[in-house]
Amino acid sequence: MLRFRAMRVDDFDGAILLWRRCEGVGLRDSDSPAGLATYLRRNPGLSFVAEIDECIVGSLLAGHDGRRGYLQHLAVAPEHRRRGIGSQLLSRCLDALETAGIAKIHVHVFDDNHAGRDFYQRRGWHQRSEIRLYSWVNGDNKNI
Ligand SMILES: CC(C)(COP(=O)(O)OP(=O)(O)OC[C@H]1O[C@@H](n2cnc3c(N)ncnc32)[C@H](O)[C@@H]1OP(=O)(O)O)[C@@H](O)C(=O)NCCC(=O)NCCS
Questions:
Q1: Can you name the residues that pair with 107 across neighbouring β-strands?
Q2: Quick check: CB of 71 below 6 Å from ligand 1?
Q3: pLDDT at 44
Q4: Rounded to the nearest 5 degrees, what angle is found at the Cα of 124, between the Cα atoms of 90 and 1?
Q5: Is 115 helix (H, G, I), strand (E, B) or coil?
Q6: What per-residue confidence (pLDDT) applies to 140?
Q7: Residue 125 C-alpha to ligand 1 middle, in angstroms?
Q8: Phi, psi at residue 124, to the nearest 5°?
Q9: Which end of the chain is less enclosed by CB atoms within 10 A, N or C?
C-alpha cells in the first residue's frame, strides 16, 4: 500500500538506491548518511518519502534558511511514475514549508532535464531568467 511520511535519518539506504535510479538527480559526496542526518536535523519534518510495502519509491528533500525554502532530489521510481506520487510529495513539502513560515521556495533543475523542468512548470513554477547561480567550494573536494 502506498503511504507518505516524513523522511527519517534511517531512510538513507532506500533513498540512495532510488536516487541512483533516477535520471536528473545529481548525486555528490554530500549525499551520505551523515549528510542526510545533518540536513534532516536542520530541517525537521519538512522532507517526505513515499513508500510501498516499506520500500521507498519516492522522495523530496525540503529545507529553508529562515527566509527562502529549497527543494532537492525530487524522485519517483520509474515504475511508479504518472500516478501522482511526485505531485503529492511536492504538495506535502510545500505545506510543511508554509507552516514553517516560508513563503518563497526555489528549486535547481539541470538545464538538460526537460522532464523535470516541465514537471515544475506545469505546476505553476516559473523559470528565473534574470538570475545566474554562482557556487563556491570550501576545501578541495570539487564533488561535494
Ligand atoms: C519528475 C518526477 C518526480 C515526477 O514524478 P511522478 O510521480 O511521475 O509525478 P506525477 O505522477 O505527480 O505527475 C507526472 C504526470 O503524470 C500525470 N498523472 C498523475 N496521475 C496520473 C494518473 N493516475 N494517470 C495518468 N497520469 C497521471 C500528471 O498529470 C503529470 O502530468 P503533467 O506533468 O503533464 O501534469 C519523476 O518523473 C522523476 O523522478 N523524474 C526523475 C528525477 C527528476 O527529474 N526530478 C526532478 C528534478 S530534480
A1: 71
A2: no
A3: 97
A4: 25
A5: helix
A6: 87
A7: 15
A8: 95, 0
A9: N
CA–CA gap between residue 127 and residue 98 (Å, rounded): 21
Cα(13)–Cα(79) distance, rounded to whole angstroms?
19
Contacts of 83 (CB under 8 A, 6+ apart): none
Q: How many CA atoms lie within 13 A of 39 on its CB side?
A: 24
Q: Is 140 exposed, middle or buried (0-12, 13-18, 19+ CB in 10 A)?
A: exposed
Q: In tens digits, what is the pLDDT along the chain, a chain of 144 residues? A: 999 999 999 999 999 999 999 999 999 999 999 999 999 999 999 999 999 999 999 999 999 999 999 999 999 999 999 999 999 999 999 999 999 999 999 999 999 999 999 999 999 999 999 999 999 999 988 888
- Does residue 50 have its Cβ closer than 6 Å to ligand 1? no
Which atom of ligand 1 has the smallest separation from the CA of 81? 8
Distance in Å, CA 32 to ligand 1 centroid: 26
Atom 28 in ligand 1: residue holding the nearest Cα:
82
- Rg of the chain, C-alpha, whole Å: 15
Does 113 sit in the ligand 1 pocket, CB within 6 Å? yes
